């Protein structure tokens, strides 16, 4: 099996992004119980389970409209429930969520017992700063053409504090997202070039800074090995930008993010 085939098999699964700690309501409860659960959790809906913890329906805030507080949940819940398997790909779950117009998809095991829930927000988060296999191999091809080298690729752990950054600024909002992903074990691998005496960070600056803030010493990465002792163009760029360690990267706040600025301009001239 080729390196490309191996990496392509590393697909994102629902079980990697779903929330395991799910608030549920019992099918034998009442509308009053659901109302109290909404007040307590600020959620807008819940999977409905029976006494055996099997999923039997879903109830949302809109199902409570005009319902008496004493009405049994079974009478107002939706029984036509779409569920996901934990080994389903995130892309397939995304198609179900967005085509059906639902916000949350209960995840069940082979016995139909609830083990988690995946939301549209989880799906979106899974796609942010996605490191695709093509991205890695295109970069390798670029190195071959520019420098006449034959890099090799491996997956491994890299030391955060030894990385040479090649990007001068990152954004606080994206940084917070990467910190959340790292805490949940969902971070994408970095892309790093390893040549004699140096680790060069190609992709994943937000993730690297997030790890540093969290006190993490090493991160998973696609490591592109260049055996030849030659200076790469990105190293010269780093030197021009006065970048030596991750501490040299500037973290910009929300207001300075280019997308936010563009939105503001559109609002002013709209």
TrEMBL record:
Q: What class of enzyme is it?
A: oxidoreductase
Lineage, top-rank taxon, reads Archaea
The record ties this protein, via Pfam families, to: CBS (PF00571)
Q: What is its EC number?
A: 1.1.1.205
The record's GO molecular-function terms, alphabetically, read: IMP dehydrogenase activity
Keyword terms: Amino-acid biosynthesis, CBS domain, Methionine biosynthesis, Oxidoreductase
Q: Where is the CBS domain?
A: 18-75, 77-136
Share an example GO biological-process annotation for this protein.
methionine biosynthetic process
Matching InterPro entries, A to Z?
A: CBS_dom (IPR000644), CBS_dom_sf (IPR046342), Diverse_CBS-Domain (IPR051257), ParB/Sulfiredoxin_sf (IPR036086), ParB_N (IPR003115), UCP004699_CBS/ParB (IPR016427)
**Cross-referenced SUPFAM superfamilies, in alphabetical order?**
CBS-domain pair (SSF54631), ParB/Sulfiredoxin (SSF110849)
**Protein's UniProt name:** IMP dehydrogenase
